[in-house]
Write a structure and sequence with these properties.
This protein has helices at 21-34, 66-73, and strands at 10-15, 37-43, 61-63. By secondary structure, it is an alpha/beta fold.
Length: 74
């Protein structure tokens, strides 16, 4: 009998990472550690720093263009 594989993490794009968005970023970081989600992109007028994105994939995309970011991250 084969063991079922867990589903791949759900890719997410965070729209607005400043202000209250920081709380969402912290929750996404927590959920990513469980394997449930993967932060694929961040849409904000000001890109986040490496320190703010600590723990996330270096391939994470950032852009102020939400539609373009969705297209780029699938």
């Amino acid at each position: 009998m084969s063991v079922p594989h867990p589903p791949p993490p759900l890719p997410l794009v965070l729209a607005g990472a400043r202000g209250h968005g920081r709380r969402h970023l912290d929750n996404i970081r927590r959920l990513e550690r469980t394997g449930l989600v993967r932060l694929a992109g961040v849409c904000d007028l000001t890109p986040l720093t490496g320190a703010e994105l600590d723990g996330f994939s270096p391939s994470l995309r950032q852009s102020a263009d939400f539609t373009g970011l969705l297209d780029a991250t699938g």
